[in-house]
Amino acid sequence: MADQHTEQLRAQNDALERQVGEMLAQLEDQQREFADAQRRVAELRVWGESDDRMVRVQVDATGTVLDVVVAPEATRRSTPELLGSAMTQAARRAADSARTQANDAMASVLAIGDRMPDLPDLVPGAPSLRSMFDDFQFAQPDGPAQSPSPSPSPEPEADDDWGQSSFLKDPLR
Question: Topology of domain 2-121+129-137, per CATH?
């Protein structure tokens, strides 16, 4: 009877060792996938363009602006307010696209939770690790990207005294 019990324990131990070995092999594969996804996200560079094609903006996966290209004719065909709006529009488009591409790059990594046995599968009553992956996503904007309409600008000062005023001369200014 003790021999039968010992054999059952050995069989359970062997099965558990195989399952842990398989999990470790899966974990190594998933670590490689994760490192590859991280590399793709770190190298991500995305361009966005304004509707009027006067401005192009390049961002990384976090939405940080890396480069801004303004068309040479923009200073002749546009106003500072419209050009500012075009820059904002291009930057938002690039950031939205970068966020989508970063989420796509991480999608296979985030699916790990579905492919891997969870702790309660091995140890009854253990906490689940799947919840770590459930809500991960790169931050989404509060609403749909919209280009702001330029706000009315104050009356411009005369060109001849631009830069002539100083808070030292008029501290209330």
Answer: Ybab; Chain: A; (3.30.1310)
